[in-house]
Amino acid sequence: MQKHGSSGLLLLYLILAAASRGDAADQYARGRFEVCASLGYANFPDEGPLHHFTAGMSSRIYLARRFALEPELTLMVRDSTDRDLVFIPNVVWDIRGRAGRVRPYLIGGVGTLTHWESNPWWTYRSTAWTLQAGGGAQIFLGRHLSVAPEARIGWPPVFRVGARVAWSFD
């Protein structure tokens, strides 16, 4: 009789442990929509080192478990005479899925880069296609808040590093 009672307690313990493990594993599982802000650095090495500060915003919309679209608008500022505005509808692939506290991902897209350059006599503006690709790791600080260091390369030749802060909606 004693042996049968301890088997029941063991079974109850295993069920409770599995249930609590499921909750812990899912505590960082995200909803289908995120709003993001980013800061970073970009350089255009083809014309000499043209160092730019970057600030952007985006929204990540999940269409499947690992696949999302992330339209992004980023301002790149070198100084008061040199600015670039980038719009890219990115595609995101979560490498290990959307569970867990750390979520590595690949990101890339094709969009437009509008360049403004000015001096006291004229202002020049041009728009060209741009392609960028890279990756990062989204790290959840809580159920909804995350940060993600990220690096990208692209064409026209650009190298970007930065971090994004995101809020996830369930």
Structural features, described:
The chain is 15% helix and 63% strand. The protein starts with a helix and ends with a strand. The chain has 170 residues and is mainly beta. The model is unreliable at 16-25 (pLDDT under 50).
Blueprint of the fold:
Elements lengths: L1 H25 L6 E11 L7 E12 L4 E13 L2 E13 L7 E17 L4 E18 L4 E11 L2 E12 L1
Antiparallel strand pairs: 1-2, 1-8, 2-3, 3-4, 4-5, 5-6, 6-7, 7-8
What is the domain total for the residues? 2
CATH architecture descriptor of the largest domain: Beta Barrel
CATH first level of the largest domain: which class?
Mainly Beta
**Helix segment tally:** 1
Strand content: over 45%
Q: Report on the biggest sheet.
A: 8 strands, antiparallel, barrel
Keywords:
Porin; elongated; 1 helix; 170 residues; eight-stranded antiparallel β-barrel; 15% helix; 63% strand; mainly beta
Write a short abstract of this structure:
The chain is built from 1 helix and 8 strands. By secondary structure, it is mainly beta.
